[in-house]
Amino acid sequence: MKRSRLFCLPLLLLVSLAVSAGQASAFKLERVAVGLGVPWAMVFVDADTLLFTERGGRLGRLELGSGEVEYLAGVPEVFAEGQGGLLDVVLAPDFSRSAKLYFTYSKSVGGKGATTLASARLEGSRLLDWQDLIVTRSRSNTTRHFGSRIAFDDKGHVYFGIGDRGVRDNGQDLRTHAGSVLRLHLDGSVPQDNPFVGHDDVLPEIWSYGHRNPQGLVYDRGTQRLWLIEHGPRGGDEINLVLPGRNYGWPVVSHGKEYWGPVAVGEATSKPGMEDPLKVYIPSIAPGSLLRYSGKAFPEWQGDLFAGALVLRHLNRVVLNGDGKVVGEERLLEDLNERIRALSESPEGWLYLSTDSGKIYRLRPG
């Protein structure tokens, strides 16, 4: 267990005026932590305490008032190779009673990484009762495309996404969990109303498939919509509305190009029987997260989606209308020039973001 005092009083870095859809939003960008690993996910335990994962395998706790960072005990060994490691962390729906957290991480199975959903109980400065709820059938010879973000609906289900693990054909192979979004009960058991339960040639945990590498997932309880953002190849990142049993096309359909040349990936950009994305990014922004803003600090952002961009290095705001259609986009913090990895909304409605350079920032009203 390691403690390090950052004494990082909020540093005012930028005051920016962002204008979109005819409304102005003044905000301040403040740096609240530096010197971390790669903070892959963040979640608020309370208004003053932020938990974060580092892909290398550590779970940290940042006290926002003092700037103190403490690394917690009880995290198992992770397969921290390539894009694998300790990935998402979220509070259980009953966290106030159970103190339970949910994680995704890459676990070594025979020397190869498999995306795994786990839970544990937070007690003081350690995790207790760590339990792997499902070690997915997603191993491959690569260290790419593990996913993986977690979301809960309001009916006792947990969802999480897994990338194709660098093997394109996995996107259409329902005998593997790779390239899919999975849906489980909170204890890891399979809901009997999952779309492929009873199909002998399909894994019953699969909720949707044909995904390349989903790294953002959020459930909107008001509309009961499950939103996903995923990496395309060279071009063709997608925002999708995830529906049960649907095929999202990868690698048969794609808006991207091959990395080795200007050649289209797949057969077409659209095909009957496969779901079209609601938004496509060309060129790729390389999305690292997804958040639906619900706070009061920025009322003009309520209901919008936010994604961190890794390659194009900005905070991406997507404006939705009441029907869930994309009607606008705004790119914030381009001058920051940081790979923005994780997003979290504080109880005050401020936006927190982490970067691959080991920093955590926040946006609050100016």
Report what the structure shows:
This protein is mostly beta strands and 366 residues long. The chain has a domain at 72-284: TolB, C-terminal domain (Neuraminidase). It is built from one helix and 26 strands. Residues 1-24 have low confidence and may be disordered.
What's the short version?
By secondary structure, the chain is an all-beta fold.
CATH first level of the domain at 72-284: Mainly Beta
Sketch the topology as an H/E string, one letter per element: EEEEEEEEHEEEEEEEEEEEEEEEEEE
Total number of β-strand segments? 26
β-strand percent reads: 35-45%
Unreliable spans are: 1-24
Mean pLDDT: 93
Basic shape: globular
The CATH H-level superfamily of the domain at 72-284 is TolB, C-terminal domain
The biggest beta sheet reads: 5 strands, antiparallel
Please report the distance between the alpha carbons of the first and last residues. 37 Å
Please estimate the helix content: under 10%
Kindly report the spatial arrangement of strands forming the biggest sheet: 1-7-6-5-4
Predict the CATH topology of the domain at 72-284.
Neuraminidase
Kindly name the structural category.
Answer: mainly beta
CATH architecture of the domain at 72-284: 6 Propeller
Tally of DSSP helical segments = 1
- Tell me the Rg in angstroms: 19 Å
